[in-house]
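Hey all, quick one. A colleague (J.T.) asked me to put the beta-D-glucopyranose job into the tracker so the inputs and the structure tokens live in one place instead of scattered across chat threads. No bug as far as I know, just bookkeeping. Sequence used:
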Amino acid sequence: MSDKKWKVGLIALSMIVIYLFIGFAINARTIDNVVALLRGAEVSSSQRYHVVLIEQEQRHPYWQLIERGALDAAKIYDLELEYTGPVRNNMEEQIKLLEKAIASKVDGIIVQGLNDEKFTPVINKAIDKGIPVLTIDTDAPTSRRLTYVGTDNFRAGNRLGHMVVQATGGQGKIGVLIGSDKAENQMLRLNGLKHVIDQFPGLEIVAVRPSNISRIEAVEQAIAVLAQHPEIDTMVGTSALDALGMVQAKNHVGRYEIRIIGFDDLPETLDGIRKGEIVSTLAQKPYLMGYDSIRLLHDHFRGRPLPKEHYTEVEVINASHARRE
Ligand code: BGC
């Protein structure tokens, strides 16, 4: 064979090897890793995708369930998960944490979109910088987030309304505690609840107060509402600790007959149902929200398209279910 033919053969072979190598490297990891591989550097596990979950409040029992789901999924999908949140419910602080995650160039962000107007510009800033964002628990629907993972909050409010109708037989004066008047999931639940109550002339919401997602504040607000409105016979809560605060309040003021309908299924809420202190609760799926948001981000990193909304189920729990738990 002539020299020329050898050279052409060698060049073709080298090109095939380079092509296969690059193809392999791209499949295995991101372009950064390709560069590292070409330089002969080892691709270490520290180059796993780094994802930040930004919660409404640190060490809150509801958010701890979301963390648990996200951590379990992060192990399975081999992502590095960091979670953070304000020490006490504080939207400005939460937005600062979102800005910080963007500045530290994380690979993905999962954030509660507490307030559409405030969160949308910051979420869009992350998207402009190439950082995918998912909203969890509360959506920021006008932002360019990839997906919302959580409850359909208006529909959940409707369900709560029907639970009230069932418990009261369509007659009663209602006091409502909401987690926060700045949180859009709470306002959607309240609107969904009102929508049903308005269809029953015998039912009336006489007071709505925020609990600031705190059990102590829920107790204080419920005591104040009961003092101001002695005609109240039913109390409804739209966030995880409200029913627990209302139980303490009704026991404190000796109004044991008051019906309480709550939100979420923290262990103490289920206990309250078993003891007959709470009539029923509408349970969200926080563990699944955490798990599915990580699973969907992983899908995104793999180039798979995501749905615009990924609604998790809610479930009505009353005495007959709670006893079985
Ligand atoms: C809500 C969360 C909130 C939590 C606080 C849940 O019902 O979905 O947004 O942080 O309650 O108790």
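Adding what we noticed when we looked at it: The pocket of beta-D-glucopyranose is lined by residues 56, 62, 137-138, 179, 185, 213, 239-241, 263-264, 284 (CB under 6 Å). The chain has two domains: 50-151+287-312, 153-283.
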